[in-house]
Amino acid sequence: MPPRLGGMKTLIVYAHPEPRSLNGSLKDLAVTTLEEAGHEVRVSDLYAMNWKAVVDAEDYGPYASSPLRVAQDSGRAFDASALTPDVAAEQEKLLWSDTIIFQFPLWWYTMPAILKGWVDRVFTFHFAYGVGEHSDTKYGERFGEGTLAGRRALLSVTTGGPESHYAARGINGPIDDLLWPIQHGILYYPGLEVLPPFVLHSTDRLTAQDYPEVAKAWQERLLTLATTEPIAFRRQNFGDYEIPALHLRPGLEPADRTGFALHIRG
């Protein structure tokens, strides 16, 4: 069930080095808009936190093996409640929240390195992956199930290029394809329901006169977080896929649909 608007707990994970940037303004507007609507809001401002973006043995303390095995070691440290305090705090925020907003610029076709480093360190084994039954009939709790199931996620993304560059025939490729590794591979994987992204194009050409219209559109999205239909990604363990091959069963694809779109229902 989607969360009630008036009682939502929202975590904003924000990744931009300049507080006076458009991304900073969108983050600030999200905080005020949601709090005025009755939400509780927490912000992880990664640059202000001086977030450590690289995984290394220090993350796992005495549970780090030699040679380092990131998956297994992160899981052992998680099981022992021995992850570093910064990582443990972010996991606690995720479990506290029922809605997570990721605010960032699209840099080199993906998220800023500091945000990817947040994912690498916070989404540990036994927390975000490697959970649930693994058998001939179920391949773990992921892609529609998992630790973060029941929560919603929204990407708020800015791009420098115009919208036409990110269209089906645009030179950068469709924006939905560029965001697929994040929306499907990072967010949906541990069970988050992913809302259609809020994308602003041509932001390096945006003027102060343009901002009120942008702000209005952003506020409208924020105030419909609880009622917006999530992207209809196919769930892994509910009949659409052959297990353990994890191939989409023949005949389920709509006519003329290929690529990433095969894995969206309807």
Automatic annotation (TrEMBL):
Record keywords: Oxidoreductase
Domain Flavodoxin-like fold: 8-222
InterPro entries: Flavodoxin_fold, Flavoprotein-like_sf, NAD(P)H_dehydrogenase_qn
GO MF terms, alphabetically ordered: NAD(P)H dehydrogenase (quinone) activity
Top-level division of the source organism's lineage: Bacteria
Record's GO cellular component terms: cytosol
Annotated family: Belongs to the NAD(P)H dehydrogenase (quinone) family.
Name of the molecule in the record: NAD(P)H dehydrogenase (Quinone)
